[in-house]
Amino acid sequence: MNEVKINTEFIKLDSFLKWCGIASLGSEAKMYILDELVKVNNEVCTQRGKKIRIGDIVEFNGEEYKVV
C-alpha cells in the first residue's frame, strides 16, 4: 500500500488522483472517476469532488493509496 501525505484537512478526489500521480490531467482524473475505476474505502466513487481525508484509502488499478 502506498502512503500519500496531504497537508490539508481534506483533498477532493480528482485533485488527489493528480497529487499522487495516477492522473496527469484533471480531465484524465475525471474520466477514471466517471468510468467507475476508482474506489474510496472499498466503494466505487463517481463524485469528482468527494472529500478525501486522512485515513481514507483510494484504490485504482489494483493499487491502494492510504491518505496520511
TrEMBL record:
The keyword RNA-binding applies. The keyword Iron does not apply. CDD domains: S4. InterPro entries: RNA-bd_S4-rel_YaaA, S4_RNA-bd_sf. SUPFAM superfamilies: Alpha-L RNA-binding motif. Keywords: RNA-binding. This is S4 domain-containing protein YaaA.
